[in-house]
Amino acid sequence: MQTSPNDLKQYRYVTLPNALKVLLVHDADAPRSAAALSVQVGHFNDPQDRQGMAHFLEHMLFLGTEKYPKVGEFQTFINQSGGSNNAWTGTENTTFFFEVSPHAFGEGLDRFGQFFTAPLFNEEAVDKERNAVDSEYKLKLKDDVRRLYQVHKETINQAHPFAKFSVGDLTTLADRDDSLVRDELIAFYQQHYSANLMGLVLLGPQSLEELEAYATTFFRDIPNSDKAKAPVAVPLVTENENGRFITIDPLKEVRKLTLSFTLPPMDAYYRQKPLSYIAHLLGNEGQGSLMSHLKQLGWVNSLAAGGGVSGSNFREFTVSLSLTPTGVDHVDAIVTHVFQYIQLIRDQGLDQWRFDEKRSVLDMAFRYQEKSRPLDTVSYLVMNLLHYAPEDIIYGDYMMTDYDEPLIRDLLDRLRPDNMRLVLVAHGQNYDRTAQWYDTPYGVTPFTDAQLAQWQQPGTEAALLLPERNPYLCEKPDPLPLADSTDLPPKLIQDLPGFRLWHKQEHEFRVPKGIVYVAIDSPHAVSSPRNIVKTRLCVEMLLEATNESAYPAEIAGMSYNLYAHQGGVTLQLSGFSEKHPLLLKLLLERFANREFNPERFENIKSQMLRSWRNAAQDKPISQLFNELTGLLQPNNPPYPVLIEALETIEVDELPAFVEAMFAELHIDTFVYGNWLEEDTIALAETLKDAFRVTNQLYGEAQRPLVHLDRSGTLSHEIHCDHADSALLMYYQSRAITPRKIAIYTLANHLMSTTFFHELRTRQQLGYMVGTANLPLNRHPGLILYIQSPVAAPTQLLEAMDEFTNAFALVLLELNEAQWQASKQGLIAQIAEPDTNLRARAQRLWVSIGNKDETFSQRQRVIEALEKVSRADMVRFVVDVIKPRTSNRIVMHCQGQAHEQAPPLDIGTPIDSIDAFQRNAR
């Protein structure tokens, strides 16, 4: 089994006597143990009259087994063991996974293994979970991704299983006179859940021998009916579905054009990756690229190549373009240019050196592969286990073994107009059909003879060029030698008026990568909503101006980002560090020679307006979160405020704004990873020159937060265009001490499972039910939320208040062992070592931003947690959380399904946001 030289884990592949394929992974440093099991069964296997059955079964397996019959007990165990769990149902796979503290892994696997050995399918749980599936379906009724996916399903060959409705609802899963759904569920499980169709990955600090013993003990009894996976015998598309122009009406303001080509399955070619080669050229964003040309014409904003759905008997290859309003009127011409570029690749783009460049990037990524979280690792390995040869399970995603030009040519020859479906998602087109389940208006027409003739002989375009050799590829791939004292925390090596420089050479992960953060605070940038919007406009314009020339750096394994925040803007570089100075030089040159092109300005302005207006179509709970943070953080306004400011800004305001913004600055820089101190200082000089850090005022921007103090219950309603109602409850700590952080974090940890089980599983109030830890500007915060298709805000508040009133009793009923286990589970999560360089950089950077200059906050919170007693927690719930005594904000929206219900009347309404925010400190 080929592994990365940077990967110190040990692997073992075994097959149990019941034909279950198992990969064991010993990771001595794993903070948690994790498991994933995938079965080669998905919605393609749903009976025609029971669509959604595979998804329903996935839900049901969590709800009680013969050995552990209590509904909800698995989640409680996982939570108390400092872990998490989930599952998903795909087209031809259903995958289950969980992670816990290593000491609890054996018991976790015992419970988990029973899902596939002796599930109960408890009758009461069947009845309730059917409602949860229905809520999940209804939650996405106004989700454009689901609405468009349904049209996709209706416009391919209807005999192919991809056409089935994958989610399920109360009608497809209803009991019928001649058949109970529970009986069919059990029959479906017995028919499809066979050990020989499963793969299992176990990962932890346990030895390979221990892990193998776990696999044998807890999974050997999964029945093996020795069934072969039934092949899909019909094609995804036939001549009746190909050569079609499909128009779809979205809910949001979206303009997207997708060229979709249906190819044979590609699983057998994972070692050669021929489609990656084609997508690499077709999706290029550098100078002379297809995207660059279409952008200059003013027709597209972005382009991506190589996506599409895939299955055991097909692979879609897509070219997706986000269009400008003008682009919608030039669809045929855009498609012509795409075919011109495909022809250019055929004629001039097939070269061994291009393949070698792509392979060297993948080889570097593999050689210096960084760890991911145990849960993420087992989740992707279990899919590789079922799709790659055993020796390629680790390396398969990165392999590009040999340049197969005939294979690439064969695939390019399939990218033809007669083998294409063209999909335009935009308002104002012709729609004569309505998709089932999601009521999406759409239309289908065959390509005209003129279109086919034009696209089959597209001609050439001189402006289109293939990419040159990449100057950003690493030449010195090994990490730099370690300097002395690299095991110490980050060091402040420059502390000047308006400029602070932190540095740390990473000593543990030993990869030639680095991260550079440059936080540019400017009080002018955030002094009003209008200035906040101007800052965001300038950020987008600079990113836009840089994209083409910096694209090769991204291909070579570097990334950069510029983002606005409550103090100004931050520039971030990450990835292979060798060429970071070259990339930074390019970005600073673009900034120095900034242009405010009126045409690009109008385009970016319209994109931002569209994005923010589309947020008004987000699910209600997302809108409540956005409104809450905008309400409490004056420097982070909600979407309606941003839209109002943006609508009247003109391009000629921006040059003077940028000058004023840079007249008062404070810059914090953190250079971390594969960096020596002298190179960090040289980089800092470049920055100081670029931002003239000698002749301006120095000022750190304040990040105000509205404090609730003794406000009692405050309420705020927003109006959502959605059937569901939603309610969100927020509690805030005025103090920012480690003890307060510990108490709020522990409250969320203790509440989450009980809240979910009580309000979702038992009361069936909705699919989106939960609690969350929400610190804002360093102040701890706790949130409880529900989005519901069945209950109005008054009922939701009543249910939440009942829960918070009773929660002190729940705490008192925990025995001492359960109390300590819950606390230790949370401490294990907080104390978890950083998984990789990026995660550590992020944690250290947050500490710098929070003025935690000893980098000890995490340890102080853990020490405070150790001291929190059950009496402290009960007192917190009674004094802070209970409705009668609490200072809280109740955000809510009343869905269309509950228009007739009485409106929520609670506490003091927040009528004026301005007046409310004047209390900000």
TrEMBL record:
For molecular function, the Gene Ontology terms on record are:
metal ion binding; metalloendopeptidase activity
Question: Which PROSITE patterns does this entry report, sorted A to Z?
Answer: INSULINASE
Which residue intervals define the domain Peptidase M16 middle/third in the entry? 366-640
Q: Which cofactor does it need?
A: Zn(2+)
Peptidase M16 C-terminal domain boundaries = 180-360
Q: Does the keyword Protease apply?
A: yes
Show where the Coenzyme PQQ synthesis protein F-like C-terminal lobe domain sits.
Answer: 746-845
Q: Name one GO cellular component term.
A: cytoplasm
In this record, what's one Pfam family? Peptidase_M16_M
In the Enzyme Commission scheme, what number(s) does this protein have? 3.4.24.55
Keywords from UniProt, A to Z, are:
Hydrolase, Metal-binding, Metalloprotease, Protease, Zinc
Q: Which residues form the Peptidase M16 N-terminal domain?
A: 21-156
The alphabetized list of GO BP terms reads: proteolysis
InterPro entries the UniProt entry points to: Metalloenz_LuxS/M16, Pept_M16_N, Pept_M16_Zn_BS, Peptidase_M16, Peptidase_M16_C, Peptidase_M16_M, PqqF-like_C_4
- Enzyme class of the recorded protein, top EC level: hydrolase
| Keyword Amino-acid biosynthesis belongs to the record | no
- General function of this protein: Endopeptidase that degrades small peptides of less than 7 kDa, such as glucagon and insulin.
Q: Which family does it belong to?
A: Belongs to the peptidase M16 family.
Q: Know the name of this protein? A: Protease 3
